[in-house]
Structure formats: structure tokens, C-alpha cells
Amino acid sequence: MSHPHLQSRRLFLKLTATTSGLLFSGLAFTAENSAIVNRQNDEENAAQFPLLILHADNSITVINTRAEMGQGVSTSLTQLLFEDLDADWQQLKTVEQGWADDTRFGHQNTIGAISSLIAWNFHRQVGAKINLLLREAACKVWKLSLSEVKTNQGVVTNLKTGQYLTYGQLSKLVQTDLPKDKLALKQPASFSVIGQSKPRVDLLEKVNGTAMFGLDVNLPQLKVAVVARCPVFGGKVQSFDATEAAKIKGVQQIFAVPSGVAVVADNYWQAISARKLLQITWQEGDFATVSSNEVLAEFKQLLDAPGKVVKEQGDIALLDEKKERILTRDFEFPLVAHMTMEPMNCTVWLKAGSCEIWAPTQNSQDAQSSAAKVLSLAKEKVRVNMTYMGGGFGRRAQDDFIVEACYIAKKFAHPIKLVWSREDDIQHDFYRPLNAQRISVRLDNNKIYAWQHKVATYSTSPYHFSLRDRGTPSGDWVAYGGADSSLYQIENFQTQVHLQESPLTVGILRGISHGYTHFAIESVIDELAEQVAADAIDFRLAQITETRAIKVLQRLQTRLANVVLQDNESLGVAFGHEKAPSGPYQYYNAVAAIIERTAERYRVKRLIVSLDHGQVINPDGLLAQVQGSAVFAVSMMFGQAITLKNGRIEQSNFHDSPVARIAQSVEVDLLTSDSTEWPMGVGEKLQGTIQPAIANALYRATGQRITSLPVDFSSLGA
């Protein structure tokens, strides 16, 4: 719906006189707004707000303040903004990727599925406040009160005369300082944009190749850098000889940086060719003797000893009482690499007294702080522009590649683009830590009576993505989170952890620690249900009182009543959740996995996913996140483990660390709720549910419990 004309010539003349020809002028962004984009616009006559630019032609440019890595946040957050702005979706001109600015944009880090959770209030409030300012501007033109005007699909209507003004026609008149007080937001019954399957706003440019990812950044006089890093974690450069490497045409400089030896050249091929010719003597350190098999063996031994208690309620000593049944089950999980399609990269242009950075980062604000520290600049003098990114999965929450690029850029007056190879990416990742777990449970009258969960793994605190939590006890929660809470009503509950510090860089990966702690929990719950001869869903329902969780499980159970398995098919279920002690952070999901046995292998045929992650913003986007999560889960469960030998990662590329292929894609049947609660992301939060559901289905097919990943089919007779 568009409204290009005013109904009153007098009103038109009045407006154009007031706004100095607002309909016909042009707008140009300064170089400092290069994140919005190297393009000409009509700045003089556009209204600039924290999250959008309202143009005189009634079009709107939205600034996406979160990392767009394929999850669709550019679209869903625009829907939240447009809902309370009361804008017409046809007004959307473009969505530009933003930059780090906590004053203008608030919290921006795109981690833990929180983008929609935070935007549910922040973006909607901004939209509502701009809407109020537009109504106030129209009231001044018409000399009316707010009760005498209303907005709808990008226009303000005079309720007395029926005249209207488009938002664009008010762009020069509107006040751009947002009110400080919170405004009432639309109720779900009035939603016209939220809950609709709007097309992806980034689809066309990603199809036609015009989307700018980090690797696409190109600036005048730009040079490309690569770094040779010690293959052993914690190792350092002892000495190096760059004589032969320096002979490569185009090489500019070769020098040591904290992470290794940097090679800067005119292009990537020259830089990587020169790197291969470097003669480096590494001081490998004690970690050069460490291998993952030995680490896992040590972690498993630690489970026999008391650990640090991080959560306790009731009396865990009751595990030793002579109650009905007791079950103890051990699990072990390997290192997992992120393997984003786009390797790490960062472009840094250090100027006199300031710096501009282009990076595919999930954590732009901490990246800004870290860069400022390395460059000895005030944070406000460092602009971090967010580009599109070819996958994130938590890897791009780290600031290491941005810090590395800044150290290199300190030696140059022109832009430097640091590029990691695929091998760099896999062998110098911040891996999901390998770990061992033990769950001990006692039942009483078919109810969980006592539960103890032990986790032995590497400390994540030294490498935590958040500068606030790095090096603090809270930085370790992402190593064991999920083991320390439960919706299952357990009177006697305890979580113990053994955390070892290591030079091996570890961090978060899609699903964080819940990916492995929930796997262990849901595998044990499934086994307990079998012990008491209960239906897997009925058993879970008997242990839960949370209403939203119960509805999710019941919805799945209802759908399964109509599922008829073939002779070669098996089904397993699992439940997943998180719920913060206070506030709106919570989600609930349940998955049924159907696997089939073919002549050659087992295959995940279908996933039935029931979820309540709050209000659905974009149904198509939600389905895409679930489908992507399914592929990711299959890759992790049936791919190749990342292994450590002599302090080095043994794998280097997709040939020895494969991901799921098209033939392994999974049919998804999605069941959503009618929840109007605060929304949360989905793709990440399903990992800890999809995987144990598949494992439980494999148990029903083979009679063997899956207690380690990746799945060893040879041990299953497949």
C-alpha cells in the first residue's frame, strides 16, 4: 500500500515550503557511515533514527544491528521494528549491516539466540517512539491533538478530514530525538507484520553475488595478510628465516606478531605462497606431548573423584539409599570445530588517530574494545563495521582474528585484510571442548528421587567470548551449563565439575554446552523410562510441572499418535529447555527422530519438532532455522571427530572433517505453539534436543545406547 500524493494542493505547498523541497533533494553519507554504504542518498531531507533512515520518497532504510550469518535476523528484526512503527512492508528500501555502537544501538552481540529476545523490546520500542514522533509532526501540520490522528501502513491519517501524510512527507518535519519513556506496544491481536512469512531481505543480493561478506571487502591500496601460527597450542616463535619467502613477487613485509609470523603481500595467493617458504623454529612447549585420547582418559578418571559443586539442592547422599532403582551412565564427547563456510577474516584501516574495521563478527562491541586496546585508541575512535558472514556458530563471537589483524595493521598506513585459510580455521579454532560426563540417578515409585551430574572438561574462562566474563568464574558456565538445572522435578539434585586450564583454545559452539549436557540428560531420561516400562513422553510429563513445557510435549505426543513406523524404522524422542532464574529468557522444545535402516546404513529420515520459543516472528524463517539445525546435528553426530595428537589438530579440511551432504538432508515436520511470550532464536537451541532424539532412535534400532560421538556405526553392526 503506497500513498504518493497528498489530497490538498495547499497542504502540499505548505509542506514543501516548510521542508525546503524535501521530495526532490538528494542525500549523501559521509565516509564515517561507510557501514551503511558507499552510496549517494538525500541526507539533508531524510530523518535519521537509531535503527532506520526515513527518506523523503517514503522509503525506509533499516540498519541491522545484529550479526547476519544466515539465520535471518535482518528480516525478523525488521519485522519487529515495522510492527510498532506501523509501516508498510513495501516501504522497505534496504537493510544495511550496522556497526558497533552501544550508545545508539544498545546490546549488539549475537550469541545465545538472544537477538529476537532483546529486539522484542528494543526494536519495538524504537518503532513505537518513531511512530509517536510522526503523529506529533502531523498534528503540528493539521493543528490537531494525538487523539485526532492515526497511523496505518506508513501514513498518518487526519480522522476529521480523511487527509493523510506519508511518513516520507513528514521526514523533514519530524523530531528525531526519541522519547525516553517506554511506550505501550501493540497487542498480539493487532499484529500485521509479526507472525507473517516475509521474504528474506538479503536473499536477492546473496543470490546475485552483490552481498558483502568479510572476504568481499576491497579498499584502495589494500594489502592481504596471512599468519603462520604454531601448530601446537601455546607454542611460540623461537626464530624464523624469511629469505626465500621474501623473494615472492608482491610480498611487502614479513614480521613477528604475538600469534606467529605475519606475511603481507599484494594479494592472497602471493601471501600464502610466501608463507609456505618460511623457515620457522617453534618453541612448542609442554603441550606438544598431549593427545585427545589421553585427555579423555584423564577426564573419565576425574569422574571417580569429588568435583567442585556448582549446584545442589536437597540431600544428594540419598543416592545411596536403598530405593527402587539406580542408574549410572558415562558419556564422552570429542572436540568439535565450527567449520564455517567463510574462514576468519578482518580488514583494518588504521588512520591518524582513528581506525575503521570491517569484520564478520558476532561480537562487534567487544571487538571494538579489544581493537582499541591493541591500537592504543579510545574506543570511540574505532569503528567496527559488521559484514555478512558465511556462518558463525559461535566461532565469530571470539575476537582473536580481529586482534591479530590489528597487530598487523599497526605497521601500515593503508588497509590490511587478514585472511585465514580453511586449514588455519580448522587447526586454530576455539573448539567445543572435549568432555566426560557421569549421571547417577535413583528412582522412587517411578519418580526421579535423586540426580547427580558430573562434568569433566577444559575451562572455558580464559577464552570466554565476553570480555566481561573472560578470566572469571562465570566464564566457565559455558563449559557445563545445562548440567546445573532441570525442569524435571528432582528434590535431591547436584552438579559437580572438574575444569582444567589448557593452552587449547576452547569456547562456544552452536548449542553451547547444552549440546552435550542435554544429550547425556535426555539419553538417561530415555533409559529411565524404559526401566519402568513407561512411554518416553509420558515419563517426561510425569516429572514436569512447567505449563509451557507440558504443552510442547503433549503437542508432539498428539502428532506421534498418527505416525505409523515401517519395519525398517525406529523412533526416539528428547526434550530440551532453558529457563533463566528470572526474566524472559526461556524456551521449550521436543523432538521425535525417525531413522531408517537401509541395506548400507542408518539414515535420519524425519524429524518431528514441537517447540515454544515464544512468539513466532517469521514462520518461514523459523522453519529454515530448524532445517539448518537438523543438518548441523547430523554433521556433528555422523561426521569425523576433531582429534588432538602431540598438541596439534590432526584434521585440516573437509576431506578429513566432512560435513553433511545433500543426501543426508532431513525432512522436518514443525509444530509451533500460539505463544505470545518473548521470542528466542531456534537454530542453536535445538542441538541439545535433536541429537539425543536421534541417539534414542538408534538405540531402538540396535539395542545399544549411544554414549559418545561421533556415532561409531561399526560398533552398531552397521
From TrEMBL:
PROSITE patterns: TAT. Residues 208-286 form the Aldehyde oxidase/xanthine dehydrogenase a/b hammerhead domain. InterPro entries: Ald_Oxase/Xan_DH_a/b, AldOxase/xan_DH_MoCoBD1, AldOxase/xan_DH_MoCoBD2, AldOxase/xan_DH_Mopterin-bd_sf, N-heterocyclic_Hydroxylase, OxRdtase_Mopterin-bd_su_IorB, TAT_signal. This is Oxidoreductase. It holds the Pfam family MoCoBD_2. The keyword NAD does not apply. The lineage of its organism: Bacteria, Pseudomonadati, Pseudomonadota, Gammaproteobacteria, Alteromonadales. Transmembrane segments: none annotated. One of its GO terms (molecular function) is oxidoreductase activity. Keywords: Signal. Residues 1-30 form the signal peptide. It comes from Thalassotalea marina.
